[in-house]
Amino acid sequence: MLDEENLPEIEDMVSVCAGLVIIDEESEIIRLVHYITQEYFERTQSQWFPNTQSSITTICVTYLSFDAFEHGLEQLQSNQFFQYTTQNWGHHARKVPNLSRALSHIVKDFLQSEAKVNASSQGLFAFKFSSNLSYSQGIQRSVTGLHLVAHFGLEAILKQLLDISKVELDGKDSNNRTPLSWAAENGHEAVVELLLKTSKVNINMKDTIYKRTPLSWAAEEGHEGIVKLLLNTSKVKGDLKDDFGRTPLSRAAEKGHIDII
Questions:
Q1: pLDDT higher than threshold 70 for residue 2
Q2: Domain boundaries, the chain
């Protein structure tokens, strides 16, 4: 667990940065003192910190793998780093060009822990939709590691998981949504393509909230490449209606996605 007695003092963190950072007293966030400094570090980041994304991914996933998170959300309010890690670990992982063997092992261990994946997903949606952590308990349950992979678009990790025979490619969350549905909504074309190539996913699966298919989600969000992938399978039923009587065409038309229409 995190050694709370060994955390550095804020004043010490500021002092070692030689005047480059200040503390925002209202939010208690340490930030760079001037935007020019930020622009410089953004421009030279790859030179100073070539392994940044890999290091942050390792830290985030290691944190999410703490045993405390196996026991549900009652532990989360006292772990303030949990919000950042649940919302961002996958974005950092997606930017790692080549996952090391050690990092791949850490990520796969986390994704195969049902309790930790469920805690992470509940935290992700609680922070996304509400300041009340208990709100998330009605949002997502029975989420698999593959759902998180699809949500964040982690193509490299998906390729590794496909080699694990016990991975259920068409697993359902509490809302009957599959990883394909999550990837289609979030615009992760490479993940959708990999899932379709397995021929082990139900391309027309409807969720239990709005009775929407992966095609419906992709059409509304304007993900043209994914719509093409789904249509090219010749298995997709393009005119299936949701609970509102809306077809994928109707969803795309409302949003003005001309190419998809």
A1: no
A2: 1-50, 51-141, 174-261
